[in-house]
User: What shape does this take?
Amino acid sequence: MKGYLLVRLLESIVTIWGVLTIMFFSLRLTGDPALVMLPIGTPPEQVEEFRRALGFDRPVIIQYFDFFGRALRGDFGTSIRFDEPALSLVLERLPRTAELALLAMVVAILLGGFAGIIATIKQNSVVELLAMGAALFGQATPVFWLGIMLILLFAARLQWLPSGGTGGVSHLILPVFTLAVFSSASIARLLRSSLLEIQGNDYVRTAHAKGLSSRKVLFTHQLRNALIPVVTVIGIQTGHLLGGAVITETIFSWPGAGRLIVQAIQNRDFPVVQAAAAVFATTIVLINFLVDLTYSVLDPRIRISGDN
Amino acid sequence: MRRKIDVRNVIPEDLYRDALSGKISRRSLIRRGTVLGLSLPGIAGLLAACGGDDDDSEATTSSDLTGGSTATVAATATESAGSASPASSTETSGSQTGGSGPSGSVTIAQGNDLDTLDPHQTATTNTDQSVISHLYTSLIIRNPDLELVPALAETWEATSDTTWEFKLRDDIEFPNGEKLDANTVKWNVDRVLNPDTNARIRSWFNLVDECRAVDDTTVEFVTSEPYPALADQLSMFFLLAPEWAAEHNPASEAMGTGPYELVEWIKDDHLTIKAKAEYWGDPVSFETVTFRAVPEASSRVSGLLAGDFQVLTTVPPDDFPRINDSGDATAGSLASTRTAMVNINCEVAPFDDPKVRQALNYAVNKEAIAEALFSGLNVEPSQGQILTPAYFGFNPDLEPYPYDPDMARQLLEEAGVQDGTEVEFTVPIGRYLLGQEITQVIAGQLQEVGFNVTITEIPFSVFLDKLITEHSMSPLAYITYAWPTLDADGLLSLLQKGNQYSYWPNQEYSDLLDEARSTTDPDTRRDLYAQATAIMREDAGVIFLFPQPFTYATVNSIEWDVRPDDWVRAFEMRQKE
Assistant: This one.
């Protein structure tokens, strides 16, 4: 187990380093912050001075080592746009994004779990058709379209919910639902298919044969085994939710880290993009790490093979 | 030398009477006024004087929308007079809100949030500078009629071609008790000029050699050469309190002499300000003002209809019917001070031949573009120049290139351009209002006269790199320009030979601009700019298109003196009686 953890940890570090390196160089291929930030007509010498003050006049490779040296000490530089430390800007916004993503994950698991199980129980009925039809629709619907349609219906037409921004629970409903739809659809479809796949296995037949109720078989025997692929997907979906937050936060004017990144990219605010990439990459790697650990809880065989 | 204009002195008596009595429409007033050679402030003053209730808001002059060098929006069209500007002596301003003090609230939704509250680190008018103008004050302010009127400075004049004198009010204090006097002004100018500040607006003061405090209430600016737009530039230069700034971060905090104080700023969400109990200038209408950042245009419209917002900027033309049919709100548009054009790289063949460039201008059907993409917004072609009527130096005698594809083909033939000549056309992604769509329509029209057009879409930052740093722009590029001082010198100089933005090396034009820069005399300058713009039309330095429309919406209970130059100010809005 120890060796397994160590290998996974090393892999994680390499992944984060890779993400940051790719991010660092691709950012620098896509234009210069000085020109975007200075007013029209600024003479070239002053553009150059501005660039120098930000350190962008140095060779890229020097900037790269400088960046990593500082990043290791937790210093991601100062936001060009806000003139505040980039990392603390990202961390300030992160709770807002986490709030959306976690709630959306909970909603997705509940909705998706319910739809997946009901579709299995009521196999070959109208209920299955409805549940899986809804899941197909949910998976095929682009987030931005769904978000705007929900705003039009619930905010503009019915006026039941606010169109965006932050405030009470009512402000959460639309963005959380919008964000949850895609993930719940994936969970529902996957759960249903893995439950059905397991249905034909010997141990399920045995459980039925020894007289357990179908409900008991489903929840204690089938579900636990069906969960392994689902947990993997939930792990991956968390990454999607963080990414989806970029779109959802923009539509619903939600002041989270996703919008910060979009703005930072538009403004060529390199330090903020880098800090956000580091935070997001670390979060996603960490979640995947936890997912791997969860397998070993769900399936002892994985734990054993890891020791070999 | 004062720039202030009394409406009655510059407008013929009969025109003034007709306008006041409502005999002529605002639109024909502008047309007649322009033909008579009236300056824009004069016309605007007359429009203001005649007030009026027509909501033909596009009637006016110009306007804009995507942000200056940076962002988006703005609006215009002074409806009825009443500017609630804090300037103490707006002669043209009419009645304000009734009642005594400020009351109620207004929420203004725009596409972007602010970047900073530091007045010296931003040139973005519609967001940063607009909010800052509620919290801080400038020496002079431009009112909704686009006239410069006193604010902190009571009077100003050019005492020679290179010196300007400003007389300040002597009763202004910052909320912390710091006195605002001539030394404060000097400290602020020095802060911007100091290279260590790395101020983003430093280039505004490139011609300023020195700012001197002559006595407590007299400030003198010395410039290295004549700088006729200095007063205009100072209307967007806001003053910090030196002692306070030493101990606070002006990027995220604020303490100024404006009519409002900062309550809170939740980045990318909202910024709220509250009217000060005591304020030295004209009273404001709204007690509380909230600026909300709502990036998605359809969310802005939905929020307006749901009652979350009262004022929007940048409304998609497609949403106009939805808003106007609601009965609760009204959408409008007007020509902004931002001009759309196609930049031509005149340094590469065959575009180094004026005939080819003229052919391009004849080949583009401006009316068809407006019809297809800005239906109902009354977008009209630029008058054969990149200036809009809002600019000093606008040439009212020029005409747009007519749409004439036969003429275009003939000119191309004369120039020896083969049918099917390849041409690359670049447009930045998501930067300009319908920029990519407009580019596609133009490409189709150029295809008609024999070019084989390839469209390249790239991020704006890459676009700027190519345009400016690398100087390697494709033969055609869609671009929009606005210049905040509304002076021809700024905008026209972008195309002057040797300027980093210019791909049109015309010596005669460059010489005229240099000559205009050597004097502050308005008549001489106007005459020189008339010649320069005529040359640009004839030599077809760009493909002239149209002023970009500025679109906005307000709930019906609010009245806004919308303006073409990007400023979005709650003190120019009021509750309808």
